[in-house]
Amino acid sequence: MTTDPPPLQVLVVEDDLGDVALVEGAFAEHSVASDLHHVADGAEALAFLRREAPYGDAPRPDLILLDLNMPRVDGRQTLANIKSDDDLKSIPTIVFTTSAAENDVSSSYDAQANAYVTKPINLDDYERVVSEIRNFFGHTVALPRRVA
């Protein structure tokens, strides 16, 4: 008897609710069982990841989709915090943003982003790209085991 793997826990760090809805839709339309969690900026993301109030019961994400341009604590600062934290740095973090600027790409990789994906403008392309991310992390890669 085989058991289904636990749902993929995904933290979406995004201030644009339209983009959040598109990501949710792309994750919902597939065989990859997933639980999406959304926060609107980097300060909330770090509180979620560190299980600080009001996120005391937050699950440890298997994957983080991180926008760069957000209020309060932006994605650049958030990425630096995640990758410098021994408890968080193993979580695959995908920069998923509208910027295609070479400086943003190179600085994200310098900060140890696991991938950099520019959000397509076309709706069909957007859904395809999110589906590829979902499939890759849901079916192809081996993810670090969740601890508590």
From TrEMBL:
The record's annotation in Pfam families points to: Response_reg
Identify the SMART domains for this entry: REC
Question: PROSITE patterns, per this entry?
Answer: RESPONSE_REGULATORY (PS50110)
Q: Which SUPFAM superfamilies match?
A: CheY-like
Residue numbers carrying 4-aspartylphosphate = D67
Which stretches make up the Response regulatory domain?
Answer: 9-134
Q: Which domain of life is it from?
A: Bacteria
Q: Any one Gene Ontology biological process term?
A: phosphorelay signal transduction system
The answer to whether UniProt assigns keyword Signal to this entry is no
**Which keywords does this chain's UniProt record carry?**
Phosphoprotein
Q: What is this protein called?
A: Two-component system response regulator
Native species: Virgisporangium aurantiacum
